[in-house]
User: Which sequence fits this backbone?
């Protein structure tokens, strides 16, 4: 993976750098931001990470996470977005986003939706990278920044977060070679897999039980789905942050091709997570509702009543699955 020279040039010539990522950041967003911060600090740069909505509890253990700010504490000269290509999706104060008029560097691995970018914006987008953390590693290497156990830990957290601890197909030989290299710097794979992927509070465990109890399965098309309501969160003293990885329980159902989890975060505000196995592009479905993501993992948010969101999204998913099944039927028919 080659790092474009203009990316290295702008990093070397900039100081007072602000790093941000998308809202609801997961391991790749936080891990990439912190690894890049630790690296750029080795070059003597003043760097700050802002997560306007705070660092999710799950990632508070990462090196430097305690230094992450809610809003910028200085006037930055360069803004870097990691694991996020759009300023309006960045977890930054609204006033900052609206008034931002500074050079911006995008480092991301999500397939790009459109080519629109402003004049002082430089982009490095590589959809072949399993995680943005892979790109950050290449960047730090190109800048000849020595690897440390702290940087390695942040990068490893990013990689296991986006590959589901090497479960997903985006796990490439390169991904495992990088993971092996990072282990060589002292990363504890068991501790990180537990913290990033496995650990769950008892409250969240009770919430998970509600999701599983309410799960529905439509075996003829391969759809599994469930719903969590505002009441569920209130009665278990949990928040949407506690639902990380829940949708994978629905995806695990034998025969499920698509799994959907609806969360009524508050009245008329619903978050939807979509996961797929086989050939279903759930990002295409999410995009129809203003969301996005990867082929096998995507999401969207809708300002509508829960029942309306469930109806609209499931109708699109069912349509997609029925088309897929009928196409498969055609192929089988050709064979016979
Ligand atoms: Mn990512």
Assistant:
């Amino acid at each position: 993976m080659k790092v474009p020279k203009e990316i290295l040039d702008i990093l070397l010539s900039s100081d007072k750098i602000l790093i941000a990522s998308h809202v609801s950041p997961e391991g790749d967003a936080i891990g990439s931001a912190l690894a890049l911060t630790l690296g750029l600090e080795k070059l003597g740069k003043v760097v700050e990470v802002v997560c306007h909505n705070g660092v999710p509890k799950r990632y508070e253990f990462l090196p430097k996470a305690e230094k992450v700010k809610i809003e910028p504490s200085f006037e930055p000269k360069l803004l870097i977005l990691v694991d996020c290509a759009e300023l309006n999706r960045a977890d930054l104060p609204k006033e900052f986003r609206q008034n931002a008029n500074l050079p911006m560097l995008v480092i991301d691995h999500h397939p790009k939706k459109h080519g629109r970018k402003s004049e002082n914006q430089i982009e490095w987008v590589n959809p072949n990278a399993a995680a943005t953390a892979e790109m950050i590693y290449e960047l730090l290497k190109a800048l000849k920044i020595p690897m440390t156990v702290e940087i390695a830990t942040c990068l490893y957290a990013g990689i296991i977060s986006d590959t589901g601890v090497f479960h997903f197909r985006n796990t490439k030989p390169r991904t495992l070679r990088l993971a092996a290299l990072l282990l060589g710097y002292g990363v504890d794979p068991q501790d990180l897999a537990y913290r990033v992927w496995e650990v769950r509070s008892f409250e969240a465990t009770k919430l998970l039980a509600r999701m599983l109890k309410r799960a529905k399965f439509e075996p003829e098309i391969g759809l599994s789905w469930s719903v969590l309501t505002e009441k569920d969160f209130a009665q278990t003293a949990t928040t949407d942050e506690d639902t990380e990885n829940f949708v994978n329980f629905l995806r695990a159902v034998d025969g499920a091709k698509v799994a959907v989890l609806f969360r009524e975060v508050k009245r008329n505000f619903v978050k939807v997570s979509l996961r797929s196995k086989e050939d279903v592009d759930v990002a295409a479905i999410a995009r129809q509702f203003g969301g996005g993501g990867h082929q096998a993992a995507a999401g969207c948010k809708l300002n509508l009543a829960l029942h309306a969101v469930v109806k609209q999204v499931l109708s699109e998913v069912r349509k997609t699955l029925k088309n897929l099944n009928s196409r498969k039927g055609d192929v089988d028919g050709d064979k016979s």
Q: What stands out?
A: The pocket of manganese (II) ion is lined by residues 28, 83, 109, 131-132, 162 (CB under 6 Å). The first helix runs from residue 5 to 13.
